[in-house]
Design a protein that fits this description.
This protein has 480 residues and is α/β, with parallel strands linked by helices. The protein is built from 13 helices and 17 strands. Strand 11, helix 10 and strand 12 form a beta-alpha-beta unit. The radius of gyration is 21 Å and the shape is globular.
């Protein structure tokens, strides 16, 4: 986990990027508490959005920061970020923290969330789960004991499922201090289907939505004949494998699945044996939902043995992957996401460039625009509810249409699943040194980026669900 001094420097750079030297100094002076696995951890202060209406979660139109807004002076609204900041996926936890820190500081710079006549900043509290279910539940207890009204997590569907149950149990037991769970990356479809909860909102497309887009792109590629499925052995990885079989067969029954294998999550240090199996099976394409080091090490192994297969991935444009893949990925590595740096859009471009300006190391340039959408929609919902009480905020958030920056999105009320465009993109040389016609932005200073090959717009009408949500009867309960 970054030291307090490093986090202050990060806050100063972000503030300067967003609003100049004065804002940078102000952000750096805000309280920065950080405690890892044990006590309630802290991040930098950040603010909620100032969008007014109940139907629209808007950002400041036309400029990255609304100048001249009053500073947030009220008690911070604490966001408990329960994530693995140590262990095999610590790099992924820190990367998400940088994204969320940017999103809340961007909102705080506009003056804070308007609640009860006050402007209140957001404050991220880092709670280290070490990527383990037991630790995550322990961190949830710390968050609820400290009466933090919102829990944020995403890097593991298994952990998310445990937190979902833990939050529901706490809210049943302690109706006076209920909390909401905001999920930014755990994409097991069950979380908004048979395991759905009034207290849980997902801001990423679930695995079925992602796989549908990826399978559409794969089916268009007539060179794909033999597919190998390699995924992590937990709920999400198993879902990816099952969905891939189903959706590829529906679109291209001529494609043969020549391998379907699961591997332990976060425990494999050498993927060469797996790459060799793929090669021996004669696969021309690999479909994987791997993320973090499990993806990086896989693609490094493929490069090492000269595996010529294409990769259709959930996270091939993710943390560390482009640099690890290198030249071998050009035209062969495909990824699906809600956005990527070369997707276009004036507002998204402006927000992304502000994030990049706040970085000291180009290798930290891994950005997910959905974190901005999540924080904007949360802030708008708090303002619409007039408090941070869980029931009131949940009712303001479900069915909410976000019409502001960086792009439109809607939170379906029936299952609390967000809907926004999805992009399938293919890896290319990118950046200033890539030459004319290349994608503008590379990733993490690697010299490689992605170009859109397919854009899809999942809608509630085209995505059925199996959620039978139980809703609380009373409107009260929660932090104010």
């Amino acid at each position: 986990m970054p030291a307090a001094g490093a986090r202050r420097r990060f806050a100063r750079r972000l503030g300067t990027a967003l609003g100049g030297a004065a804002l940078g100094a102000a952000l750096a002076s805000w309280p920065l508490r950080a405690r890892s696995a044990g006590p309630a951890a802290g991040g930098a202060a950040a603010r909620g959005e100032g969008a007014g209406g109940a139907a629209a979660g808007g950002a400041a139109a036309g400029s990255e920061v609304a100048r001249g807004e009053p500073a947030a002076r009220g008690e911070p609204i604490r966001l408990a970020m329960i994530e693995g900041f140590s262990g095999a996926f610590a790099n992924a936890g820190d990367s998400v923290w940088r994204n969320l820190q940017f999103a809340v500081e961007r909102v705080n710079a506009r003056g804070g969330v308007r609640v009860g006549g006050q402007r209140r900043p957001f404050l991220i509290e880092r709670l280290d789960s070490k990527g383990q279910v037991e630790e995550a539940i322990a961190m949830l207890r710390r968050a609820t004991d400290a009466r933090m009204p919102f829990v944020l997590q995403g890097n593991s569907s298994t952990v998310a499922a445990a937190l979902l149950e833990g939050v529901a149990a706490h809210n049943e037991r302690m109706p006076g201090s209920r909390v909401l769970f905001l999920n930014y990356a755990a994409v097991d479809p069950a979380l908004t289907n048979e395991r759905c909860s009034f207290w849980h909102f997902r801001f990423d497309a679930h695995a079925g939505m992602r796989m549908s887009a990826l399978a559409d792109a794969l089916a268009r590629n007539r060179e794909v004949r033999r597919v190998y499925l390699l995924n992590q052995d937990y709920s999400f990885g198993r879902q990816v494998a099952s969905l891939a079989r189903e959706m590829i067969a529906a679109r291209r029954p001529d494609i043969e699945i020549v391998g379907d294998e699961l591997h332990p999550l976060g425990r494999i240090k050498d993927f060469v044996p797996y790459a060799a199996k793929i090669q021996a099976a004669g696969a021309d394409t690999v479909v994987t939902g791997n993320w973090g080091n499990d993806l990086t090490l896989l693609v490094r192994a493929a490069r090492e043995i000269g595996l010529g297969a294409g990769f259709y991935t959930f996270y091939g444009n993710g943390l560390g992957a482009p640099a690890a893949i290198g030249e071998a990925g050009i035209g062969r590595v495909h990824a699906v996401a809600e956005w990527h740096p070369n997707a276009g859009g004036e507002a998204a471009e402006r927000i992304y460039l502000a994030f990049r300006r706040g970085l000291r190391d180009a290798r930290d340039d891994y950005f997910n625009m959905r974190h901005v959408v999540m924080i904007e929609m949360l802030a708008a919902s708090i303002e619409a509810a007039g408090s941070t009480a869980a029931v009131a905020v949940a009712r303001a958030l479900e069915g909410r249409e976000h019409r502001g920056e960086p792009y439109p999105a809607v939170m379906r009320a029936a299952d609390h699943q967000l809907f926004a465009p999805l992009y399938v993109s293919v890896m290319q040389r990118a950046g200033p040194a890539a030459g004319a016609g290349a994608p503008k932005h590379d990733l993490e200073g690697s010299g490689f980026g992605f170009r859109t090959e397919l854009r899809v717009e999942p809608t509630p009408a085209t995505q059925p669900h199996g959620c039978a949500m139980k809703r609380p009867g009373a409107a009260g309960g929660g932090n104010t």
